[in-house]
Design goal:
The complex is a heterodimer of chains A (about 425) and B (about 210). With about 425 residues, chain A is mostly helical. Chain A has 17 helices and 6 strands. The relative contact order of chain B is 0.13. The chains are: A mainly alpha (about 425), B alpha+beta (about 210). Chains A and B meet through helix 7, helix 8 and helix 13 of A and loops of B.
C-alpha cells in the first residue's frame, strides 16, 4: 500500500521534506499555532453561524417584540434559541479575541527575539498583514448581529473610514454598501466581506506564511547553539510535533468552550434592536487605544487642501487612520533597519536581554498603546481624575520614562555580562533538558 | 532536419538584413496597441467598478426632512405620535424625534440624518441667533454627532449640554449647538421650529447640512 502510493505520489519525498521538518521545542513557539487553532475554530463555528443567519435588514415580526425587527437581529435570536447555539456564537466571539491576542503575542515574541531578520523579512511582512486583516475581519463581523450596540460601534467605523481625505467617502460607500446605518446593502456587503473574501485572503496569507516557514526553517532557540552548534534541533512534525499540536488544539477547544459557556458573548437581547438611543459603546480591547486617541485629539486640529473635492484632514483622520497607519508602516520596516551583521542569515534567536535598546523600545511602544487605551476611559464614572491634558501627558511621558527605566534596569542587571555569550547550564544530559523545556 | 536548420538560418539572415528602423516602427506600434488596451481595460473596470457604490434609493421613509414636517417621537410608548410642547419640561433629557410628512403621515425614520433632538431650556439663556428658531425655550437640533455619526442621546444636567455617548462631545443647545468640549469639529445644526395645534413643526431645513461629512 505504502509502495503503491509512494510510486504515484512520491510520499517518501513528502515525508522527508515536510513531515520530518524539525520544530524547535520552546513554549513561546506555540503562540503562532494557537493563532492558527483560533482561526480553525472560527471557520468551523462560522459555518454553523452562516447556516442560520440571514444577512438582511428587512423588517420581520418576531414574538416578544411589539415592533418588527431586522432579519439579521432576528436570526441571532434564532441562533441563540438553538441547542448550544448561544455557546457556539460565544465560542466564535471569544476565538476572535484569542486569535488577535495570540497573533499579537506571537508578533512580540518574533520582535523581542530578533527572528524577523534576514532571511525572514517576508514572513514578518506577511504576519503584519495577517494581523491587520484579522482585525478588519473582526470589525466587519461586529455589525452582523445588528443590535443597537453593534450598529453604533460600526457607525463609528463608518465615520472613521469617511474621514480619509479625498477617497474616504468612496471607500466607506463601497465597504459599508452606502450609508451606515440606513442602506439595505450594508449588511449583505459586510457579511460577504466577513465570511468570504477576507477569510479567503487570510487563508492565502496563512498558506504563504507556513510555506515560507517550512522553506526557511525556524530560527533556533538560543539553547540549540550550546546543545548542538550548527545543527538543527527540534522534534519532527510527524509524529511528535503533530501529537503536541493536536493535544494543544484540544486544550484550546476545551478552554474556549469553557469560557464561552461561562461568559456568553454580546447579549443581543440586552442591547435590543437598532433604536435612536446611543448606548455607551466601547470598542473591543484591540481598538481601545484608537478610541482613546479619538477622544483626546482636539477638534481644531484640522486643515483642508482645496484641491479637488474633499481634501479635509481632520481629527478623526489623525487618530483613526494616520497614527495606526504610521505604526503599521513603521512595523513593516523594522527588518530593514534592524539587520544582522554583514548580511548574515539569522540562525539563532537573540535573547531580549542582549538587545536592551530594542527590548526597551518594544516595551515603550506597548506603554504607548496602554496609555492610549487608558485615554479611552475618559469620561467614565470613577475616572474623573483622567482629564484630556492628563491623558496627553501620560501618552507622551509614560513611554519615554518606560524606555529609560527599562534600559537602566537592563544595564544594571545584565550590563556586565553583555560582552559574554549567555551561560546555559544543562542538568542531567543536554538533550533531555532541551526537550523538556 | 537539415532543411529545418537551413530554414532557420535563412530566417535569421533575412531578419538581420532588414532595416533596423522597420523593427522600431513595429515595436512602437505594438507598444501603442498594448497601451491602448491597458487604458481601455482600466477605464472600463472603473466604469463597472463604480457600481460598487450603491445607488441611494429614495422611499417615503428616508426622504430628507422638509419644511412643514411634524416632529414625532422616535421611540418609547408614544412612538410615531406628534410631540406635544406642553409635555416638555425645562432642562431634562432631550426627546429624540423624527419628521413626519404632514400629508401622508409617513414617519421619515429610515435616514439617520433625519434624527432631531428637542429640548426645552430657560428662554432667557438662548442667544439671539438661537432664539430665532426657538419657541418658548424649545429648541431643535440635528441628532447626528458631527464627530463620527452617533446619535447625541445624552444630557448633562449640570452643564445643561447635549452629550454624545460615543466620544464625549458636548454641544450647547442655548448657543446654536456650539461644541463646548470633546472632539466634534462643528456645531450640530439647529432646526428652526414653530408650534401649531400643539404640534412642533419644522419651519425650514436644518440651518446647515446634518451628518458627519457635511
Amino acid at each position: 500500500m505504502y509502495q503503491w502510493l509512494d510510486e504515484r505520489l512520491d510520499i517518501t519525498r513528502f515525508n522527508n521534506k515536510v513531515l520530518r521538518k524539525a520544530f524547535p521545542v520552546h513554549h513561546t513557539f506555540f503562540l503562532g499555532e494557537i493563532t492558527l487553532f483560533a482561526f480553525v475554530v472560527l471557520v468551523l463555528t462560522g459555518i454553523f453561524l452562516t447556516f442560520n443567519y440571514e444577512p438582511s435588514t428587512r423588517l420581520i415580526k418576531v414574538a416578544g417584540y411589539t415592533d418588527p425587527v431586522q432579519a439579521a437581529y432576528a436570526s441571532i435570536l434564532y441562533i441563540d434559541s438553538l441547542p448550544f447555539g448561544a455557546v457556539i456564537r460565544s465560542v466564535h466571539h471569544w476565538s476572535a479575541h484569542i486569535m488577535i491576542a495570540a497573533a499579537f503575542l506571537h508578533l512580540l515574541r518574533i520582535l523581542l527575539s530578533g527572528a524577523y531578520k534576514k532571511p525572514r523579512e517576508l514572513n514578518w511582512i506577511i504576519g503584519m498583514l495577517m494581523l491587520v486583516t484579522s482585525i478588519v475581519v473582526a470589525f466587519t463581523g461586529y455589525a452582523l448581529p445588528y443590535d443597537n450596540y453593534a450598529v453604533t460601534a460600526t457607525r463609528i467605523g463608518h465615520g472613521i473610514a469617511q474621514s480619509v481625505p479625498w477617497v474616504g467617502v468612496a471607500v466607506a460607500q463601497i465597504m459599508f454598501g452606502g450609508d451606515f446605518p440606513g442602506s439595505d446593502h450594508s449588511i449583505p456587503r459586510l457579511f460577504s466581506l466577513h465570511v468570504l473574501w477576507l477569510p479567503l485572503a487570510l487563508m492565502g496569507l496563512i498558506g504563504a506564511h507556513l510555506l515560507i516557514m517550512v522553506k526557511q526553517k525556524h530560527t533556533q532557540p538560543k539553547y540549540a547553539e550550546k546543545v548542538a552548534p550548527g545543527k538543527i534541533l527540534g522534534v519532527p512534525l510527524f509524529p511528535q510535533q503533530a501529537v503536541m499540536s493536536g493535544v494543544l488544539f484540544l486544550v484550546y477547544v476545551a478552554v474556549v468552550t469553557l469560557i464561552a459557556g461561562g461568559f456568553l458573548a454580546h447579549p443581543v437581547e440586552a442591547y435590543g434592536p437598532l433604536s435612536a438611543n446611543t448606548p455607551a459603546v466601547k470598542p473591543d480591547w484591540y481598538f481601545l487605544w484608537i478610541y482613546g486617541l479619538l477622544k483626546i485629539i482636539p477638534s481644531h486640529w484640522e486643515f483642508t487642501i482645496p484641491l479637488f473635492n474633499g481634501g479635509k484632514f481632520g481629527p478623526e483622520f489623525w487618530g483613526g487612520v494616520l497614527i495606526p497607519s504610521i505604526l503599521l508602516v513603521g512595523g513593516l520596516l523594522i527588518p530593514f533597519f534592524s539587520v544582522t551583521k554583514d548580511g548574515q542569515k539569522q540562525r539563532y534567536l537573540e535573547l531580549p536581554s542582549q538587545k536592551p535598546v530594542r527590548t526597551s523600545l518594544t516595551i515603550a511602544g506597548l506603554m504607548f498603546l496602554i496609555m492610549g487605551t487608558l485615554a479611552g476611559y475618559i469620561g467614565d464614572s470613577g475616572m474623573e481624575w483622567l482629564t484630556i491634558p492628563v491623558a496627553w501627558t501620560l501618552l507622551i511621558v509614560a513611554p519615554i520614562v518606560t524606555y529609560f527605566v527599562c534600559y537602566i534596569i537592563m544595564r544594571a542587571i545584565w550590563g556586565k555580562t553583555w560582552p559574554q555569550e549567555p551561560q546555559i547550564e544543562f542538568i542531567g544530559g543536554a538533550k533531555g533538558s532541551a526537550a523538556d523545556d | 532536419m537539415a532543411d529545418y536548420e537551413a530554414q532557420i538560418e535563412h530566417n535569421i539572415l533575412e531578419h538581420e538584413e532588414e532595416e533596423p528602423s522597420a523593427n522600431t516602427t513595429r515595436r512602437a506600434v505594438l507598444q501603442a496597441a498594448i497601451g491602448v488596451g491597458v487604458a481601455g481595460t482600466v477605464l472600463s473596470t472603473l466604469y463597472v467598478g463604480a457600481g460598487l457604490v450603491p445607488k441611494k434609493v429614495f422611499t417615503p421613509e428616508n426622504e430628507p426632512l422638509a419644511a412643514g414636517d411634524i416632529l414625532v417621537y422616535a421611540q418609547g410608548p408614544n412612538q410615531n405620535k406628534p410631540i406635544n410642547p406642553a409635555d416638555l419640561k425645562v432642562d431634562v433629557l432631550q426627546i429624540i424625534a423624527y419628521p413626519m410628512n404632514p400629508k401622508t403621515n409617513v414617519v421619515k425614520g429610515s435616514d439617520p440624518n433625519n434624527t432631531v433632538l428637542i429640548v426645552k431650556i430657560q428662554p432667557s439663556r438662548l442667544t439671539p441667533a438661537t432664539a430665532k428658531g426657538a419657541v418658548d425655550g424649545i429648541v431643535a437640533y440635528s441628532g447626528v454627532c458631527k464627530h463620527l455619526g452617533c446619535i447625541v442621546s445624552n444630557w448633562d444636567p449640570n452643564l445643561e449640554q447635549f452629550v454624545c455617548p460615543c466620544h464625549q462631545g458636548h454641544y450647547d443647545p442655548a448657543n446654536s449647538g456650539k461644541v463646548m468640549s470633546g472632539p466634534p469639529p462643528k456645531p450640530i445644526p439647529q432646526l428652526p421650529i414653530k408650534i401649531e395645534n400643539n404640534q412642533i413643526i419644522a419651519m425650514a431645513f436644518f440651518l446647515a447640512p446634518p451628518g458627519v461629512n457635511a
